[in-house]
Specification:
Keywords: Folate biosynthesis, Magnesium, Metal-binding, Transferase
Shape: globular
Catalytic activity: (7,8-dihydropterin-6-yl)methyl diphosphate + 4-aminobenzoate = 7,8-dihydropteroate + diphosphate
Strand content: 15-25%
Strand order of the largest sheet: 8-7-6-5-4-3-10-9
CATH architecture: Alpha-Beta Barrel
CATH class: Alpha Beta
Protein name: Dihydropteroate synthase
Pathway: Cofactor biosynthesis; tetrahydrofolate biosynthesis; 7,8-dihydrofolate from 2-amino-4-hydroxy-6-hydroxymethyl-7,8-dihydropteridine diphosphate and 4-aminobenzoate: step 1/2
CATH topology: TIM Barrel
Function: Catalyzes the condensation of para-aminobenzoate (pABA) with 6-hydroxymethyl-7,8-dihydropterin diphosphate (DHPt-PP) to form 7,8-dihydropteroate (H2Pte), the immediate precursor of folate derivatives.
Largest sheet: 8 strands, parallel
């Protein structure tokens, strides 16, 4: 893992080391319609309280999103997305003691967030959103911030699922390089729950080691996802144990960051998995 250790420092004094231990990214959905917790944290005081709870429980990063990307979601314009973020993000950045990631695939939203002082871009289209070619990479390069490039595609047809994901990441890295963003700022994400069937999600989980050998730290986002519900026959809110098992598997396969709703129990599980990892 030594070659994948990343040390990030920001001008507001915050810092982050990726690769020394498993990091926990706590999910803060500022949306009325997210698949798991829509509407719970879309008011400023509730969002800030939830942030404080997650940091106390072990979150190393807070990931705020203003547009639901659940299956069948209705896209927002960048202006609408920014309007939602404006209610919460400025105070969140002032009060949050850990780095803040902004979950968006729109360059205009990312530019607003980075100009406001956010620290990381979390892009579900991995710098490859077809309506804005090259624009997200340009924002990340301008602000010299880490960007999480998640694998995604329309439909679920693949020639070679793992090979196609690797090719996607290679293309993302090429786009980043063309924009002037160094490879040390790239964090990958296999995109569990995006552009994949439940069976394909499970296959990716079983083959994570084939992806963590790439020269980038990897984030894993399995929290309460549909494939867990299918395996355990459980509704969204009862999938914490399944999420924990998936996260432990991710730790043992070499993933560096876990993006989760249930911070406290998952942080404990990951700490134990880190200790047992050979």
């Amino acid at each position: 893992m030594e070659n994948k250790i990343r040390r990030y420092h920001w001008k507001d004094g915050k810092s982050l080391i990726v690769g020394e231990k498993t990091l926990i990214m706590g999910i803060l959905n500022s949306t009325p319609d997210s698949f798991s917790d829509g509407g719970q944290w879309d008011h400023e005081c509730l969002a800030l309280r939830h942030m404080e709870d997650m940091v106390r429980d072990g979150a190393d990063i807070i990931d705020i999103g203003a547009e639901s990307t659940r299956p069948g979601f209705t896209p927002l314009s960048a202006e609408e997305e920014i309007s939602r973020l404006e209610r919460i993000l400025p105070q969140l950045l002032r009060e949050c003691p850990v780095p803040v990631s902004v979950d968006t695939y729109k360059a205009q939203t990312a530019a607003y967030a980075m100009e406001s002082g956010a620290h990381i871009i979390n892009d579900i289209w991995g710098l490859q959103y077809e309506k804005e070619p090259g624009q997200m990479a340009a924002v990340a390069a301008q602000y010299k911030v880490p960007v999480i490039v998640m694998h995604n595609q329309k439909g679920t047809e693949y020639t070679d699922l793992i090979g196609d994901i690797k090719h996607f990441f290679e293309r993302s890295a090429m786009i980043a390089g063309q924009a002037g963003l160094e490879g040390k700022y790239i964090i990958t994400d296999p995109g569990i729950g995006f552009g994949k069937t439940a069976e394909q999600n499970l296959y990716v989980m079983q083959r994570l080691r084939d992806l963590t050998v790439l020269p980038y730290p990897m984030l894993l986002g399995t929290s309460r996802k549909g494939f867990i519900g299918k395996i355990l026959d459980l509704p969204v809110t009862d999938r914490m144990e399944g999420t924990g098992a998936a996260c432990v598997a991710g730790v043992l396969a070499g993933c560096a960051i876990m993006r989760v709703h249930d911070v406290k129990p998952i942080a404990r599980m990951c700490k134990m998995a880190d200790t047992l990892k050979v």
